Structure formats: structure tokens, C-alpha cells
Amino acid sequence: MIKKILTGNQAIGIAAIECGLNLATGYPGTPSTEILETVFENSADDTYVEWSVNEKVALEVGGGAAIAGARVLTTMKQVGLNVAADPFMGLTYLGVQGALVIAIADDPGPHASQTEQDTRMFAKYSNVPIFDPSSPQEAYSMTKAAFLLSETTKLPVIIRPTTRVCHGSGIVEITNEITPYKPKGFYKSSKWVIFPKLSYQNHIKLEEQQKEISKIHSDNEFNYIKGNGKLGIATGGITATYVDELTKDYLDDICILKVGNPYPFPDELGKKFLEQVDRVLVLEELDPVIEEALIELSFKNKKVDILGKKSNHIHYAGELKINYVKSVLEDYFCNLNDISLKEVSATSENSMKYRDSDINEIDTIDLPHRQPTLCAGCPHRASFYAVKEATKKLDVVYSGDIGCYTLGNAKPLEVIDTCLCMGAGITMAQGLHHINPDTKNISFIGDSTYFHTGIPGIINATYNDVDMTIIVLDNKTTAMTGNQYHPGIEATIKGQKKKMLDIGKIASACGVEHISYGNPYDIEDSIKKVQEAVNYKGTSLVIFRSPCVSKLNTKSYYTIDNELCKNCNKCIDDLGCPALYNDGLPHIDKTMCTGCGICKFTCKFGAIREGEY
Q1: Alpha-carbon distance 395 to 205, whole Å?
Q2: Which residue among 88, 254, 429, 539 is least packed, with the fewest CB closer than 10 Å?
Q3: CB 131 within 8 A of CB 142
Q4: What are the structural domains of the chain?
């Protein structure tokens, strides 16, 4: 064994490789992205790795390899599971021949997601075993255990790291040894064809199988009881790490149930825990999964007062940060006057010591709020500005999508009126059109999202003769998640040269007849192209092409001539570029400026000019 400092995402990727990984697929999405990147960066050449066009495709490619006997890892974030839900549910009934581990990163908070979702609930809903790591070390160990469990049970298995585990670093002991694995290959059988009768039969088997897996979970290293007291604490995930740090000196007074496998729940271990304690406080993110399992066990066995989200002692939404956990524990240990808390054998004197304990207060700093903004020089800002100028006299609804360009919602651009999920900008605009046909509908979508789930919406629009304009913001990357590849780029994750798929030709094949291309930094031409597209009766498409500014090596910047400047502030008010500021007069921060020049277009006095380094 060797020790390395790894993030949770890196730990999962390394563990998968050491298990003899044959194939890995995924779609980038924070906080999961680095798992697949770690696999790519560290795996052997014979391991197939791809960024798929969406999570559904990723899981279907992974499922195909798994029924051919391969060891497979598929990665996504929690909202990506919504996209992959159809094959996800079916694969549970179908089963696998090799091993299929699905790494689904949850984002309590949320930090970079449109919803808070708890994948543990999805695991229970679909009868898929799940591992819930509390640290990078557990992420590594659980990934290995997940591959073993999948291969043993012939079921897909989830590992669910949350944001703090994904991006947190720690010392991880790894074997640094790869166990080579050769897939057995696909064999023909009726079991791989999921007819209704087979689904019914397999559902019965699945329910029985969960009972057996529950026994396995009751006896593994990830689920355990520690402490000798009558005050119970049940916890899992990153919250278990906080609880461990805050209570390590008081195990004579408390008893902790740590749950690393929330589904199937380790029932036998849970019963043993409830026999030992007189009441339980449950700390978990997000939904009351552990809490509900204990309530059910308590109802069937020893009746114990169980406090948590359902009793309004713990909040449902967001992370359970360490300061919050600390304050809850102090109340739990000390506030015996709370009528909802059952009296326990611990004396008041014994309980009070927790409030005055040597657990140090963790200092926190209230940081100023930073408004999310597009990068200085981002081509999306130019595209948004051109669209806004082109449509300023019209009644328009702008439907957006998931990506950097969601920030078009913010002042001063304000050209994103709706945003739901990947690909929904195009389809929501159609619904808006059918109800308000006199309003112009413009939808924005990025190049990666176009391939992800945008194309079906375009087909639906042309098939149903919808009068709308689609603006594709093609910056040649999946920018928000770290510049990953997609089919509109001439390379794969391995750097292999591939023929680039043309967004316009695909749209044409889908029935779009009015298609134009533009450089967003050419504001006058961009305005003209948008106006022509909006005036066209039917579904029109404008593709604004310019690389993500983070991939450019600029040689120039712009500056403001204070003698010509009239201090009208139009450049700042219209664009909101972070390189522009006013300290009595408008100025351009040349360390941030990328030389895009769109601010020059806003100035009627010719005060903005180009400079060179």
C-alpha cells in the first residue's frame, strides 16, 4: 500500500482502474467531472474511455459493455441521472454479466446544479445497491467494494459521493496495483431481452435479492456501530466525518451508527443499534433515508424516539455544514427541557459537559456575495448583446439552457427568461409559442448541449411548424465543466482526430431551412443575421461561432481615452464586462481584457481604442 493525497473524485477513478476497468463513459457535470478525467489520465491504452453525448447514452454504452462481461464505470451528476433514468431502471431488471458501477455525484447546497436531489432515494426506488462515502479514503475503498458487489450480484451498483467528498482532498491508501480483467464476451440469451413477463419475474427476484444484500451490508466495513452510551446518533456520507470529529472524545456517553450503504439498509445492524440506545438523532444529507429506515425498524422492533428531518429537528435543504452539525449536537446533548426529546439515562450533569466541551468553535468568515458573470471577452456576451440589440423593439421571450450562457439572465444583459434543464430551452420555447403565438420566441443553446438533448427539440419544432429562432452558441467546448470534448470538436478525450459533426448540417437534416453562421464579435453582422432569422416565418437557426475565451492566447487589449470619454457609462451598463469599471471615469483593466472589442461598438464617441502589449 502507498499513500497519496487525492480528491474523492480521483480516488474513485484510481480505484476503478485498479479493479481492471475495461470501459468508462460519462457526461461532464460538476461535481462529477474529474472522475472520468482521472480514469483517462491514468488508465492503460486498452481501456476505452469516452465523453458521451449525454448521460442516457453513456449508461447505455456502459450497459452494453457490462452485459458483454466487462468491468464498467459510468459517471454523471445527480441531475444527469434524470436523463439516464430509462436505461437505469431497465438495467436493474436486465442485470449485467461483468460489473457496472455508476458514479453519481450529488450536489447538496446546491453549488452548481438546478435542483437538490438525493440519489439514495433513486437507489431505493430502482432496487440498486448504493455506497455513500464519507471521505476520499472511503470513496476509494467503496468503489472497489462496489465492483465486487456488482460482479457478485449481477446488478448495477451506485457510488454516491457528494460535493464535499468529490472535491475534498485527503490522504488515501491505495494498492497502486491493477488487477487485469478480460471480459468474457456477450452470449445470446433471452435474459437480455426485457419482455413484460420477464420484468415481473425479475422484480420478484430483485426484492428477495435486496434482503440478501442487506445482510451483506450489515457485516461490512462501511456500516458499523461505535460507542457505549444510550444517546444514539445515526449518520452517513460527509456528515459522518463531521460527527466523528465532533464526538470522538465522548464515546462512553453516545452510540454512533455509521451507514455507508443506505440501500439496501443494513437491517440487522440497525436492529442491534436500536437495542442499545434510548433515542436517536439522525444526521444526513439530503432526504431522510437513514431516518425512515430506522423508523421502520423501530416500529417493527424496539420503539425508540427518532429525531431528524421528519421531526423538524434537522433541516431538509442544503448541506449539513460542520458548524450546523456542532450546534445540533450541543442541543441534542444538553437541552433536556425540549418536550420533544425523551428523557434518557444520561444525567443532566453528564449531558451538560458537551456544551462546555473542548470542541473548538470553527471560525467562519462572511464573504461578500459575488455575482456570477461571464468571463471578460466571452463570445456569449457578444452574442447576447447582438440578439438584444436586434430585438429591442420586439415583444420577445428568451428561453435559455444549462451552461455558461445561463448567466445571460443577469443584469445588464437580461436575455434568459427561462431555464429548466439540458435541451429544454428549445422545447419550452415551443410551448410558449403555442400559447402566445404573437410573441417572438428565441432559444439559446450551447454546442455541447445541442448534441446532448437539443436535436430532438429541433425535430419537434420543424415537424410541428413552430415559428421560433434558435441561437446556437458554439464555443467549441463544454466550457462550464472544464472544456471537455464533444462531437462538434475534431478530437475525442484521447486526442484522436475525428471528423467534426456540423451543427448546421444536422439542423438542415432535421428540417430547418433558414440557417446562418456568424462571428459574435462582428456585432453589426450579428445583429443583421438575428433580424433576418427572427423575421423568417418558421424555425430558423443562427450559429455564432467563436472559441471559448479561456482557450485563446490574446495579444491585445482595449483602453479608454479619457479626453474623448463623456462618462456616459454605456459600455459598462450595456455589457457588464468584468474588465470594465468606473472610478470617476470608465476604465478597462488590461490584465482582464482579452481584446474582444465589443465595448468599442457601444461607444458613440470613439473613446475606446485598441492597444498592444
Answers
A1: 57
A2: 254
A3: yes
A4: 2-217 (3.40.50.970), 224-352 (3.40.50.920), 379-549 (3.40.50.970), 556-612 (3.30.70.20)
What's the pLDDT score for residue 365?
A: 61
512: its cell numbers:
430547418
pTM summary value: 0.75
Cα distance between residue 460 and residue 440, in whole Å: 18
Question: Which residues touch 324 (CB under 8 Å, ≥6 apart)?
Answer: none
Residue 592 has pLDDT above 80, yes or no: yes
Q: Which helix (H) or strand (E) holds 598?
A: helix 598-602
C-alpha to C-alpha distance for 452 and 80, rounded to whole angstroms: 11
Q: What is the 3-state secondary structure (H, E, C) of 354-400?
A: CCCCCCCCCCCCCCCCCCCCCCCCCHHHHHHHHHHHHCCCCCEEEEC
Q: Which residue has the cell 462538434?
A: 488
The confidence score (pLDDT) of residue 356 equals: 34
Cell of 23: 470501459
d(CA 43, CA 6): 16
Q: Give the C-alpha separation, 20 to 590, whole Å.
A: 50
Which amino acid is residue 461, in one-letter code?
A
Confidence band (pLDDT; 50, 70, 90) for 41? Answer: very high
How confident is the model at residue 143, as a pLDDT?
Answer: 97
Summarize pLDDT for 480-495 with one digit per residue, the tens: 777 777 776 777 777 7
545 phi-psi bin (left φ>0, alpha ψ -120 to 50, beta other): beta
Q: What DSSP string describes 209-268?
A: HHHHHHHHHTTSTTSEEE--SSEEEEE-THHHHHHHHHHTT-TTTEEEEE-S--BS--HH
**What is the rounded CA–CA span in Å between residue 29 and residue 448?**
12
What is the arithmetic mean of pLDDT over 549-573?
87
Above 50 in pLDDT, residue 344?
no
Quick: pLDDT tens for 425-469. 888 788 788 778 888 989 999 988 898 888 988 888 898 788 999
Query: What cell does 519 get?
Result: 462571428
Question: What is the rounded average pLDDT for all residues in the chain?
Answer: 86
Residue with cell 435479492: 209
